[in-house]
């Protein structure tokens, strides 16, 4: 595959795919020597029509003259076709950025690291974690040969399992109060049919996508949602500086912060929960495993089951459980906090 990147032609032997013929094949003057042997050569054939011509003669026609193929071409017509290796179908694909609908792309203003170039390639870098309902991968999106900001980035690709690979036991409690627009989908969900399971799987990806967008727009510390494509969400990769360079931020559960950082983490948690509650939403599965410690910053992840605080009959229970899960961890690390107190404080924000 070949992509245009500049102003000089690169005449190599690879097959060239030109997406715009006008660009690929500028109309040059008739003196151009690119392409088939000049017609003058044919006259030779007629003049010597008695002779037997073999393929050797044709080869001679081509190699007799040393020609600079660029001679006589106005430089403004020249294009640089930069050849890259064929993409590896197992680990690569052309960037899907332009193939998803605009509404399936992240909220604006977009961070400057988001790669939107049509020439970018997505490369699978490896699996981050396999889970019951989804797997998280690292994926690089980059314009070949570039590591400039906005042309190269590593993201997390979270891919939900479909149908029988998923567990659905929690689905009913979480989806209660959530609107499913198409009535066929609604019936299928109720019936628990195979179609229902497909719908439900899609619903989780859409649900996490919507939650990430909403939280991002509320200014909450969540990964920036880059795009949604079917069961796959691409999002910001939350990292820390490790000994060997950039690495995935640890889950809060794996860290042992000192007293000052611990107190700061708790303040960040309380602020984030208050903002969510004010917006009428509850994480629904908040724990030190779904919270990343990105240096001094806490980042909340894994939001497919975000519920309405009021619209869902279990909204309050989910909020109390979130408070309990988090407070337990903070207490175990030495910070005296109480979930009932936190819950009460949050409720004051809600109404
Ligand atoms: N945006 C992200 N940045 C860094 N790590 C992430 C990100 N999203 C997920 N992870 C890692 O992948 C794991 C699984 O992701 P999560 O969204 O919690 O899915 P699951 O439903 O499998 O729990 C997380 O615990 C975390 O280690
Ligand atoms: Mg998780």
TrEMBL record:
SMART domains for the chain: RIO
Enzyme class, broadest EC rank: transferase
Transmembrane segments: none
Pfam families with a match to the protein in the record: RIO1
Gene3D superfamilies for this protein: Phosphorylase Kinase, domain 1, Transferase(Phosphotransferase) domain 1
Keyword Flavoprotein in annotation: no
EC number(s) recorded for this UniProt protein: 2.7.11.1
Catalysis performed (reactions): L-threonyl-[protein] + ATP = O-phospho-L-threonyl-[protein] + ADP + H(+); L-seryl-[protein] + ATP = O-phospho-L-seryl-[protein] + ADP + H(+)
Domain RIO kinase: 89-348
Keywords: ATP-binding, Kinase, Magnesium, Metal-binding, Nucleotide-binding, Serine/threonine-protein kinase, Transferase
GO molecular function, one term: protein serine/threonine kinase activity
Keyword ATP-binding recorded: yes
Similarity annotation: Belongs to the protein kinase superfamily. RIO-type Ser/Thr kinase family.
Protein name per Swiss-Prot or TrEMBL: non-specific serine/threonine protein kinase
Species in which this protein is naturally found: freshwater metagenome
